[in-house]
Design a protein that fits this description.
- With 315 residues, this protein is mostly beta strands.
- The protein has helices at 2-9, 34-39, 46-51, and strands spanning 55-60, 65-72, 78-81, 85-86, 92-93, 96-100, 107-115, 118-126, 133-141, 147-155, 162-169, 174-180, 183-190, 196-204, 208-215, 220-226, 234-239, 248-254, 259-266, 271-277, 287-292, 301-307.
- A hairpin with a 6-residue loop joins strand 6 and strand 7 (107-115).
- The longest helix is centred in the first third of the chain and has 8 residues, at 2-9.
- The chain is globular.
- It starts with a helix and ends in an 8-residue tail after the last strand.
Length: 315
C-alpha cells in the first residue's frame, strides 16, 4: 500500500517551496524505507490510484506531533500506522499532498493549515535515506480567526487546472480562494452554510469541485461548486441523520466506478468511523458503514493524505 502511494507521487513532478523551518523528526523504523517506496514508481500509474481502496488519514496532536495511517475497509476496519513526526500545533488543515521529483531522489508533502488567526503553507521534506521528515511553514495570510475548518482541491491532471482553498466561516458563509503560485485570490463567498460543521473534497474536475459536508444536526450533503464565477452551488442530501458527531471528514477514491471511502472523526471521543459510498447521487447513494477504526484520533485536526496527482472523482 505504502509502496504504491509513493510510486503514484512520482507519476509526475510538482514544485512548491516554503521557508521558516520549524523542526526535524527522525522516523523510528522506516520499514520499508521511503527510498524503496519511491523506487516502485515504474510499476504503477496514476490510474492505479483510482482502483486502490484505502483511507490515508493524518492528525496533529496539540503538541504538534503528527500521526498518519492507512485504513482499509473491513468489519471492523484495519489500520496500519506510519511513523510519527514532529510538526506544529494546528487547528485546521487541508489535504496533505505527496509528490517528488522525476528522478526519485526527493519527496515532500505540501498543504495549508490554520494556526490561531493565521493561514500557513507547509512543505514537509522526506529524507529518503533514513525516513526523517523535516517540516517547514510560511505564513501566507492573517484574519482567519472566524474560520472553523478548511478544505483544498487540486485539479492537476489536465488543463484548465485549478487549486482552490475553501473556508467555512462562523458567519454562515463558505469562502473560496484560488491558489495561484504562492499567492491567493479571493473568489467570493456563498451564504447559507450556518448549520454546517465538517467538510472534505470528494470531486475535482475541470468545471466543478464537490464538497461533502455534514450539518450540526447530523445530515450529510454533497455541495457541487462550479468553477465558473458567480455560479450557484448545487446541494444534494445524501443522508438526513447519523453524522452529527464528526468534526472532521476525509475522502479517498475507491474502485474504478467513482466510489469513495469516507472517514468521520469525533474529536470529543478521539474516535473515527469508516464508510464506503458509491458515486454520490443524493439519497440514491449506496453506503456501507464499516465501523470504528482501531486508532486513537487524539488530534486537534484531521486531514486526508494523498498523492498530488490522485484526482477525486466521487461525484
Amino acid at each position: 500500500m505504502k509502496l504504491q502511494r509513493f510510486a503514484l507521487a512520482l507519476a509526475g513532478a510538482g514544485l512548491l517551496a516554503a521557508t521558516a523551518v520549524s523542526g526535524t523528526a527522525a522516523a523510528a523504523d522506516p520499514n520499508p524505507s521511503w527510498k524503496t517506496k519511491l523506487g516502485e514508481k515504474s510499476q504503477t500509474t496514476v490510474k492505479a490510484a483510482a482502483a486502490e481502496c484505502a483511507s490515508w488519514v493524518g492528525w496533529v496532536q496539540p503538541s504538534g506531533l503528527a500521526q498518519h495511517a492507512d485504513v482499509t475497509p473491513s468489519k471492523p476496519p484495519k489500520a496500519e500506522k506510519w511513523n510519527d513526526f514532529q510538526f506544529v500545533g494546528t487547528r485546521a488543515s487541508g489535504t496533505w499532498y505527496l509528490t517528488g521529483n522525476s528522478t526519485g531522489t526527493r519527496a515532500w508533502f505540501s498543504g495549508l493549515f490554520l494556526q490561531g488567526a493565521n493561514l500557513y503553507r507547509q512543505t514537509s521534506y522526506v529524507n529518503l535515506s533514513n525516513g526523517a521528515i523535516t517540516p517547514s511553514a510560511t505564513r501566507v495570510g492573517s484574519g482567519w480567526t472566524s474560520f472553523t475548518t478548511i478544505a483544498t482541491s487540486n485539479y492537476s491532471i489536465t488543463t484548465p487546472r485549478h487549486a482552490y482553498l475553501y473556508g467555512l466561516n462562523t458567519n454562515g458563509s463558505l469562502y473560496r480562494y484560488a491558489q495561484i503560485g504562492t499567492s491567493f485570490k479571493a473568489l467570493g463567498s456563498l451564504p447559507g452554510f450556518k448549520s454546517f460543521k465538517a467538510m472534505t473534497v470528494i470531486s475535482e474536475t475541470a468545471t466543478y469541485d464537490t464538497l461533502l459536508m455534514t450539518t450540526k444536526a447530523g445530515a450529510i450533503y454533497t455541495v457541487r461548486i462550479p468553477v465558473a464565477a458567480n455560479a450557484k452551488p448545487v446541494l444534494k442530501l445524501v443522508r438526513s441523520t447519523g453524522f452529527a458527531a464528526y468534526e472532521a471528514l476525509t475522502s479517498h477514491s475507491c474502485g474504478t466506478r467513482g466510489g469513495s471511502l469516507i472517514v468521520g472523526v469525533d474529536h470529543d471521543t478521539d474516535t473515527g468511523q469508516q464508510y464506503a459510498f458509491s458515486k454520490f447521487n443524493g439519497a440514491s447513494t449506496a453506503m456501507t458503514a464499516y465501523g470504528k477504526i482501531p486508532l486513537v484520533f487524539n488530534g486537534t485536526t484531521t486531514a486526508p493524505f494523498t498523492s498530488y496527482y490522485d484526482q477525486l472523482v466521487g461525484e
